[in-house]
Amino acid sequence: MLDKEKKQFMLNPNRAACQTISGVNLVEMMVTLAILVIVLSLGAPAMARWVRDSEVRSSAETLRSILQRTRAEAVSRNTLMRVSLGDAHGHPAWVMGCVRISAVCPAQLFQHAAEMTGKVRWGAAKSAKANTVKIALEAGDAMPGTVDFYPFGDAPKVAEGTDIARIDVFHAIDDRARRLIVSIDGGGNIRLCDPELLPPDPGACK
Questions:
Q1: What predicted TM-score, i.e. pTM, was given to this entire model?
Q2: Quick check: helix, strand or coil at residue 62?
Q3: How far is Cα 131 from Cα 26, in angstroms, rounded to an integer?
Q4: Beta-bridge partner residues of 82
Q5: How many whole angstroms separate alpha carbon 110 and alpha carbon 155?
Q6: 118 CB contacts (<8 Å, ≥6 apart)?
């Protein structure tokens, strides 16, 4: 006759295997935590850089969009439209409206107050500096500044050097973060480019 322990083993064959499994001891847990801390410390700067690059990209695309909107309004309304950009400290801001004010064409159609808490900054230049894209502009350069779009969608004051031809978009606290440039030419064409890219990359500044 089998004794009690043998009977229990025959009724539950997994019992022996279960008895051999031990829990994680304190040393193993500390090693695992140390590895986790190292991995996180290596990944955190890259994640922060990605977030800041995304903030710059979002601001640059918004800037391009408001310029395009101003040009479209000039064409559709058959009138002179103006967009005023930024403040003296380079905080992103804009006011878009009609130059020839009337009941149906006010001085302020759309506006966005300066983003005082954000870390993205703008700096602008007129045509004399517009092509030196490798040299970064400072926050608030040539700001607040304006761009006028005429009924045919052109921007002749840009070509004349009296309106903004270039806006640098960058991060205020991280000079390693991406810098993007939004440019306008005399024909009213608006382009977003990355000065770190080289031709023939379509995103390179020309």
A1: 0.77
A2: helix
A3: 62
A4: 97, 148
A5: 19
A6: 55, 59, 91, 92
